[in-house]
């Protein structure tokens, strides 16, 4: 909240609505409140969620999980944005104002090939069952309903699908610079803030390889059941 307040005050200062920014420049950030808690779905949760969605919304959810794109970026995509030879999807209008090319895996290629088959270059890739485009905020209700059906509590947001994509890459050891490029981040600071702790690290690998077994934990007879 302090960060948002400072951003608003800085904007007012830059617009000459405030004479000085000295007052809030002296305010130090609160301790231990900047550590992000990123929620993401497991592979099993992704599968359950996709399977319970209606057909038109299912395509959007799959698109988000396979590209990390925002809802607005997906709904603005046209058939010509899919390059089958390169295996990429182009985001022409992004939050940062810059276009980017998102690399697809084999599953992503298959999805966009199916969705663009027979479409004219300017046709939207993602449409509702009635042929109308997806509009602002129309993703919230079907996502909440799908979350309730598969008992994901609290209900997820569309942005969590983006987190799930990035987290899956981070846990596979993909360099944070690559993840930042895929997400459209201007630099790696935001990516590091949210996903660096998920990346395999030299420290973690060294500890797990070197720490001996003390024999203080017996053989487990309990199997965790997936919710």
Mean of all residue-level pLDDT scores = 90
Shape: globular
CATH-defined architecture of the domain at 43-198: Orthogonal Bundle
According to CATH, the homologous superfamily of the domain at 43-198 is Intergrase catalytic core
* Poorly predicted sequence stretches spanning 5 or more consecutive residues: none
Task: Report the sheet-strand fraction.
Answer: under 5%
The chain-level structural class is: mainly alpha
The description of the largest β-sheet is:
3 strands, antiparallel
State the share of residues found in helices, binned by percent: 40-55%
How would you explain this protein's 3D organization?
The protein is mainly alpha-helical. It has a domain at 43-198: hpI Integrase, Chain A (Orthogonal Bundle), CATH 1.10.443. The protein is 46% helix and 4% strand. The protein contains 11 helices and 3 strands, in the order H-H-H-H-H-E-E-E-H-H-H-H-H-H. The protein has helices spanning 2-14, 22-25, 43-52, 55-67, 71-75, 106-116, 140-149, 158-171, 176-183, 189-195, 202-210; strands at residues 82-83, 88-91, 100-103. Strands 1-2-3 form a 3-stranded antiparallel sheet. Helix 4 packs parallel to helix 8 (158-171) and helix 9 (176-183) packs across helix 10 (189-195). It starts with a helix and ends in a 17-residue tail after the last helix. The model has no long low-confidence stretch (mean pLDDT 90).
